[in-house]
Amino acid sequence: MTALSVDCLNLWIVIGEIEKLNEDPRIHGLLLRLCRESYTSKILNAVKPEKDVNGITDFNLARLVHGDICECVVPPTARAVIKLLEKQACTTLDGKKILLLGVQGPLEVSLQCLLQRKGVMTMSLSWNMKQLQTMVNISSELQIAAQQSKEWNLSCLSLQPISPVPSDIEISRGQAPKPIHILAKEIGLLTEEIEIYGQTKAKVRLSLLERLKDQPDGKYVLVAGITPTPLGEGKSTVTIGLVQALTAHLKINSFACLRQPSQGPTFGVKGGAAGGGYSQVIPMEEFNLHLTGDIHAITAANNLLAAAIDARTLHENTQSDKALYNRLVPLVHGERKFSAIQLARMKRLGITKMDPKTLTADEINKFVRLDIDTSTITWQRVVDTNDRFLRKITIGQANTEKGFSRQTQFDIAVASEIMAILALTSSLSDMKERLGKIVIANNTKGQPVTAEDLGVTGALAVLMKDAIKPTLMQTLEGTPVFVHAGPFANIAHGNSSVLADKLALKLVGKEGFVVTEAGFGADIGMEKFFNIKCRASGLIPNVVVLVATVRALKMHGGGPNVIAGVPLKKEYTEENLKLVSDGCSNLLKQIQITQQFGVPVVLALNVFRTDSPAEINLVCEIAKQSGAFDAVPCRHWSEGGRGTMELAEAVRKAANQQNNFRYLYDLELPIVEKIRIIAQKIYGAQDIELSPAAQSQINCYTQQGFGNLPICMAKTHLSLSHMPEKKGVPTGFVLPISDVRASIGAGFIYPLVGTMTTMPGLPTRPCFYDIDLDPDTEQVKGLF
Amino acid sequence: MTALSVDCLNLWIVIGEIEKLNEDPRIHGLLLRLCRESYTSKILNAVKPEKDVNGITDFNLARLVHGDICECVVPPTARAVIKLLEKQACTTLDGKKILLLGVQGPLEVSLQCLLQRKGVMTMSLSWNMKQLQTMVNISSELQIAAQQSKEWNLSCLSLQPISPVPSDIEISRGQAPKPIHILAKEIGLLTEEIEIYGQTKAKVRLSLLERLKDQPDGKYVLVAGITPTPLGEGKSTVTIGLVQALTAHLKINSFACLRQPSQGPTFGVKGGAAGGGYSQVIPMEEFNLHLTGDIHAITAANNLLAAAIDARTLHENTQSDKALYNRLVPLVHGERKFSAIQLARMKRLGITKMDPKTLTADEINKFVRLDIDTSTITWQRVVDTNDRFLRKITIGQANTEKGFSRQTQFDIAVASEIMAILALTSSLSDMKERLGKIVIANNTKGQPVTAEDLGVTGALAVLMKDAIKPTLMQTLEGTPVFVHAGPFANIAHGNSSVLADKLALKLVGKEGFVVTEAGFGADIGMEKFFNIKCRASGLIPNVVVLVATVRALKMHGGGPNVIAGVPLKKEYTEENLKLVSDGCSNLLKQIQITQQFGVPVVLALNVFRTDSPAEINLVCEIAKQSGAFDAVPCRHWSEGGRGTMELAEAVRKAANQQNNFRYLYDLELPIVEKIRIIAQKIYGAQDIELSPAAQSQINCYTQQGFGNLPICMAKTHLSLSHMPEKKGVPTGFVLPISDVRASIGAGFIYPLVGTMTTMPGLPTRPCFYDIDLDPDTEQVKGLF
């Protein structure tokens, strides 16, 4: 009959105590009024529904989050709490014993009196006060919850760009990032929603999606490009420059969602991918190296599945049905039992028995033999290293593998289907389902064999449980960035994750912007963004920013070859309006491609020092005449967000345009039809031509029930056609489909247009020659 | 002429401001009195020496850390600060302008007056108060610094063991761990010294070693074992139980230093390695999975080096000297320049020219050609997966590799020499040096080719820059644990890291204990601990705890075979004093082995439910008669720390015994002699017998200048001899050395006694069948 309040509670102690209280028959209900660190959905969810008196805690949290009762409970008063109790639970309160855990003070006394008048008995509970560590008042948490949809109160980092622009790593190192937990608080993340990884990175938990599920989404902006030169035209820098302009200069909440780069190219040819100049994610070395280990987790999961395939094949080849069965369903303490994943397989096989002793010889045979046809194995091993000697290898040559060797290959880790799954998944349970559905080969009867059949789904999900959480970092100007997933842009869809975009759209609020990027030109990355990623997410983009450079346009207009590592010819460094104007054919085509999806397009001309004012004006004029909503020059590389303010304004206006978003094709069309639509409507091909292998694969996938998946074309990004040397807008060509493969877990069919290398190599002089670590300062040198 | 104090400062802002002040000619000196989050050596180091008035800040920090002026500055008073100033800097203070940054309050006023009387002008500085975020008073930091060598004020987690003992994962999940930053504070780590990875793991920075360099080390305890059964005899659980007893029950500061387990066995056969029962590291799934990514970093570094070897060989085989040179030293902005790592190689080649244009054809040839003899390549690729099909493979079979295929293998990641380096290194610069010294093959002239020759040292160091920091976790009872490195225990030394031990020895303080574990029996892990790890660290162990079980002793006494996965025969579950007493021969021998190193030994008998009191007494009596300092039964598995208190008391007493530690052999002896000493004095062999291959390798290593390295024997752990089936104390055998290899970066020669598998396989029913993730609770199931 005495009330007890507790000054401050610690999450881990509270949850433990609540779990005890859940089982305590003397307590009828709990009303939680906790300190900031503890007032979290994790704790509230720990309360058993029947102990949560008529949903009072839910009610509290929901209301507090939406802010509509904040005026009466900040600071909380006994009267306000009682009002809530009366409103929600008066009919059931009488005679109940309710435990109050909350902020101590005068509140407690009056609350106790009032509750007793309502017929509620309050009970005491002994807490170990010494263990209680966190000390912040509930009101701070309420403030965070209430500000969710408002303009962030962000302390941006100021930039003083210098000229000439220093190296990327020098600029990155010159700016001290905000501690990441401060940025997280500034954008409305609760303490329990982040997992800090050092000072500059944090993973964000998916529980945020549940907390903000009723919050409206912000505007969704895709950055795509024209057909690029081999040097790239700056989509990443535009993406970062744009959010720097929006948030640091125009004070509009915005988020950039980027792909995690592979470590292979970082040490090989390309260098880092954190943006460049004064538009970067910092610290760039953290971005470019292990980050929070997602790619390593993918590698581990991918290779566990690969090892399971070959080991299983070996065991099936060397053991009788009975021996296999005795090992697969072993005697433990004198009893045989199926594991959960084995019962699921039995169900798929149509065997409904639960007792391992009762299976017939035929059922045992069906159960123990996957009968993988090793010539059909499509699952490859991966490493996140440019290792050309692994492009084709023979495995299983040790005596212990008894002659069952076979030829296979390693891919670069980001080409793993598991990376594509990570980018498209919507939740932990969806990811687990997709992992189980991965088809690794056919069996000797031509039926698909999955990861689930190998019994490895759960282990793959366990390996990926942290990778599913996006990583929060910041731009050079202190604005937030999500880095999450980075699937290959040819054999996969080349877009960052659906989950990062969804989290960011909630965090920026209705008036905010989320800017994400699609790999390669609009014909490749954007087409896949719309037809694959948007289909998976259900999100509708508001604006497409199309990035072009005078350099690339001159190339399309007939300028000389652009080759990485070779100095540019003078056509590219001197004014040449003819080449620019001719090359705008590619720009026009890419604008038209975008318009087929019904989304307004803004041209962002990434300006180089050598571009003349006349060239810049010409491109912008042509773009506007070609149907772009607006066209603006951008100087983010040399100026940061300040150099992209015009683009930010144009994007803001475009986002208020009417949106007629539509997919390009109906999923129910036959695979061949879907391929033809993309070839003709996007690439401008006259038709497609299937090789016999491609046709046979299409038949197989259709027959296996995978015909209604979207299409992920594996085509060169250096031309709208399949011929990299054809610049501008090639016409009249027939697109050859050499083969067709499937990523069933990720959920797409990928036709191969020519050969695609899935393992880069190291050149004679790899980047690593210049990369070094100063052991005294711990600073990384030579990344760019 | 006005003084300014600042309420609270934020590290990144403070450093930025200090850097400005360093350049400000109007300020002659800085005296820092900062809030807790900011009062760090990082900040203090940011102050230019000439601005640091006569070392006042250094003086402050040094004194505060050692606690000898704490009585006058906790809480800080103006008089105390002035006393310091007078004592340290009075001769130079007159006429100086000094900026005071510190905690606001009455102190400031009196300090200002006093300073002015001393002729010091104080100046004001405008801080952006809005950005200041961290709010804890200086006195907390002082308290942390002062308590360093005292007993920790640890909030231990209480255990309520139940019987029968539930599964490891159930016990682990039943205990909510303390947030890791709280544990870090409790043991005296400063905020700037940890990098949080989620709620339960943190990396600890090596700067701690510098801060506590004058602090005396605690006592150093090694847990080793008798020759084990294939089931293992519980060294990890004893290690964890012992620190639980010391810290949670006897209130003595202690640390466990453990190896990070490979993920391969976690999903394969063995399961996790976080201890077991009520002696575990929690959360055990975090311990057993990615942890903080160290093994992934090793994999990445190992495989980058491997890729570099084959790519370089290909490029040398397919290009002229001139083409290679033009690519290796490319024209950038019209100029060729050597990179730092290339200049270092030139120096090794005896070429002193700096200008790439001046090299002769012969010098160019020497410079561009490593001439790797591919038949001598000893560097293998690695994965952290049990993938038996990678035990022997052929690589380079794609057309792009132009026929330069070769046979090679993958090892499990923890068998990488880089793992052995991580465990033995003493600093970032030492690690970088060791990475550069890795010998990957001989050239065609028989000279060693190193990672440094390939130009990849810096990149390897960059990949390993975070892995070098040990990971802090906790036991089931909330006491601290370091997890760091986990090299293979046969081809490498099988011990956790030198750095973790060193950090822990400082943190526990003079009266505290650090308990670490050596893989396999004392003949293997302990011998390597003493002769390799202690040589690398210079540390001297105080006590050896030798773990035995009645089960293993019965096996040595002639009991039936013990096989993993097969139920134990009745000899092992029923009392059998004869078998026990006969088997104690192995125990006696392992005690004698330990005594050769001059360190007191305590026998820990890991008690099983089926052991009879008579059996337990018998073992303890024999151990004491055999020279053990003490011998005690341990019940940590079923009782946690409470079950190991007797052991803790025995260890405490043994640590005060006189220590006559000595190495087993002199490094300057010939390789063959060192091998013979180990074989005879440790294993009890009559002699050794070298194969011709082994003899030729020894000659080669000796000739290459590697003859004075310690020896790391690769021998079965299941017998004192090379024959796993020979239990007890085999005698009269000749130890065959089939081959000899070298890990030059790690710093040891490893003779192979028979064949060693460096890649485990997956059995018919791998552990992963039972591993699953609950998508709703995010809980891992089925780990054990």
Number of strands of chain A: 29
Low-confidence stretches of chain A: 1-9, 34-39, 53-77, 88-94, 101-108, 122-147
Strand content of chain A: 5-15%
What is the overall pLDDT average of chain A?
85
What is the number of independent domains of chain A?
A: 4
Largest interface: A-B, 105 and 104 residues
Q: Using the CA coordinates, give the radius of gyration of chain A.
A: 29 Å
Find the structural class of chain A using helix and strand composition. alpha/beta
Helical residue percent band of chain A: 25-40%
CATH class of the largest domain in chain A: Alpha Beta
The CATH architecture classification of the largest domain in chain A is 3-Layer(aba) Sandwich
Distance from N terminus to C terminus of chain A (CA atoms, Å) equals 68 Å
Shape verdict of chain A: globular
Query: CATH topology of the largest domain in chain A, which one?
Result: Rossmann fold
Helix segment tally of chain A: 30
As an assembly, this protein is homodimer
Largest sheet of chain A: 12 strands, mixed
CATH superfamily of the largest domain in chain A: P-loop containing nucleotide triphosphate hydrolases
Keywords (chains A, B): ATP-binding, Ligase, Nucleotide-binding, One-carbon metabolism
Subunit structure (chains A, B): Homodimer.
Pathway (chains A, B): One-carbon metabolism; tetrahydrofolate interconversion
Pfam family, one (chains A, B): FTHFS
